């Protein structure tokens, strides 16, 4: 009787040990597979570009082209004034009035003069005829002097790197734009809901 009573617990202990070993093996295997899948996943970046001035056109295209060069999947949603960045004809300007902290720097003259930051108050810049045109020409001159790529060049680089250029259909309808005004390389025209559905799986999502 004693032998029968002792053999049963030993069998149960062995079965429990085997089950625990199997469970631990499955847990470790699952963790390893999940880690491998995460490491193999291509990073995704989603950008939302909302501004159409010359200075604010640089961030989305710089980020998009850089991420794409690193092998990331990049989607950029252009909405409201940002949609102007996808037009075939780019005529971007700087808006000092909308950038109260923006310093003006002169692209010509001696080094000490070019390094001066001319913080011009909005009240002054808004009342000077042609000031926005002057600020835009100075910005373009500085970009050229420093050898910085133009917006057209950065946009072309982004397209060649297979960045998805997505236009906001609601914005086009709102402003009465014709889709023929925009570059042929656009990936799609969608609404905000469609873009957000895709952006929710991105590793990084930035609003610019």
Characteristic terms for this protein:
Hypothetical Protein Ychn, Chain: A, elongated, 2 domains, 50% helix, 5-stranded parallel β-sheet
How are the secondary structure elements laid out?
Elements: H1 2-40, E1 44-49, H2 54-69, E2 73-78, H3 111-114, H4 122-125, H5 131-145, H6 151-160, E3 164-168, H7 169-175, E4 188-190, H8 192-199, E5 204-207
Parallel strand pairs: 1-2, 1-5, 2-3, 3-4
What would you say this structure looks like, in words?
By secondary structure, the protein is an alpha/beta fold. It folds into two domains: 1-41; 44-207, Hypothetical Protein Ychn, Chain: A (3-Layer(aba) Sandwich). 50% of the residues lie in helices and 12% in strands. Helix 2 (54-69) links the parallel strand 1 and strand 2. The longest helix is centred in the first third of the chain and has 39 residues, at 2-40. The N and C termini lie far apart (80 Å).
Number of domains: 2
Largest sheet: 5 strands, parallel
Low-pLDDT stretches: none
Structural class: alpha/beta
Helix content: 40-55%
What is the average of the pLDDT values?
79
- Record field, number of beta strands: 5
CATH topology of the largest domain: Hypothetical Protein Ychn, Chain: A
Radius of gyration of CA atoms, rounded to a whole number: 29 Å
């Amino acid at each position: 009787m004693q032998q029968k009573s002792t053999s049963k617990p030993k069998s149960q202990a062995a079965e429990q040990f085997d089950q625990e070993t199997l469970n631990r093996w499955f847990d470790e295997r699952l963790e390893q597979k999940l880690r491998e899948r995460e490491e193999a996943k291509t990073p995704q970046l989603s950008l939302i570009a909302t501004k159409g001035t010359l200075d604010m056109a640089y961030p989305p295209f710089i980020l998009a082209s850089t991420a794409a060069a690193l092998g990331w999947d990049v989607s950029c949603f252009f909405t409201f004034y940002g949609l102007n960045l996808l037009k075939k004809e780019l005529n971007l300007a700087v808006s000092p009035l909308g950038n109260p902290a923006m310093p003006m720097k002169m692209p010509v003259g001696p080094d000490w003069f070019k390094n001066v930051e001319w913080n011009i108050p909005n009240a002054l810049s808004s009342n000077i005829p042609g000031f926005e045109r002057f600020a835009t020409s100075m910005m373009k001159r500085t970009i050229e002097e420093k050898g910085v790529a133009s917006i057209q060049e950065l946009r072309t680089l982004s397209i060649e790197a297979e960045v998805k250029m997505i236009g906001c259909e609601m914005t086009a309808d709102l402003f009465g734009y014709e889709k023929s005004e925009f570059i042929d390389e656009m990936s799609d025209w969608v609404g905000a809901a469609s873009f957000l559905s895709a952006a929710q799986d991105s590793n990084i999502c930035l609003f610019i």
